[in-house]
Amino acid sequence: MFGRQKKKDETLQEQLSTQSEPARPGAKGRPTPKRRDQEAARRRPIVPEDRKAAAKGDRAAAREARVKQNAAMMRGEQWALMPRDRGPERQFIRDYVDARWNIAEFAMPVLLVAMVMSLFFSRFQSSWLMSAIFMLTYGWLLAGMIDMAITYRRIKKRYQAKHPGAEFPRGSGWYAGVRAFQIRRTRVPRPRVKRGEFPG
């Protein structure tokens, strides 16, 4: 009987002491966890139990990362581009080339047509027909290269007018020419301007 009363008195005193103690500023309000418990919670096995599932998960994550990077590269985001495509100068060149109708971009279709024509007319053994196809093919390529040389001079002039004192990096003329010779829908990164929307 006296033992029960004593236990009640101790419980009452503990409650009063906890109520009377003011809460310290910045206190967590909970006991600090033991170090060994925290280390056990963070501990992971070096080699996963299911290696096949882990490898499958890694492959899926790598595939997803590649898809995201490829999509960002197609959009022209700088972090995802190849080193040759990075920089404001390269972006300016791409936009200018994509905004115009280039003779060079039709070179590949012309070459395909010329190849089919040469195969078709070879049975007639006509020298003038073959010479005409030859002149058409190489004449178009030459016209495309001349057109790109003139276009690059315009690109450089317009960029330097917009950014006085700026210099194009080496190889920009080749970069512009390679992009101009590609069919518009196959260019990487994808064109972000429409025909006639020249930069600057």
Give the SSE layout.
Blueprint (H helix, E strand, L loop, with lengths): L1 H19 L14 H8 L8 H25 L12 H12 L7 H15 L5 H36 L9 H10 L19
Account of the protein in words:
The structure is a single chain. The chain is mainly α and 200 residues long. The chain has a domain at 70-186. Helix content is 62%, strand content 0%. The protein has helices at residues 2-20, 35-42, 51-75, 88-99, 107-121, 127-162, 172-181. The protein is elongated and about 110 Å long. The model has no long low-confidence stretch (mean pLDDT 82). Residues 1-61 are annotated as: Disordered.
Major sheet size, sense and barrel closure: none
This entry's quaternary arrangement is single chain
Low-confidence runs (pLDDT<50, min 5 residues)? none
* DSSP strand count: 0
The H-and-E topology, N to C, reads as HHHHHHH
Mean pLDDT across all amino acids? 82
Query: What structural class should be given to the helix and strand makeup?
Result: mainly alpha
Helix content: 55-70%
**Over the alpha carbons, how many angstroms does the gyration radius reach?**
36 Å
Which keywords apply here?
single chain, 200 residues, mainly alpha, 7 helices
Quick structural overview:
This protein has 200 residues and is an all-alpha fold. It contains 7 helices and no strands.
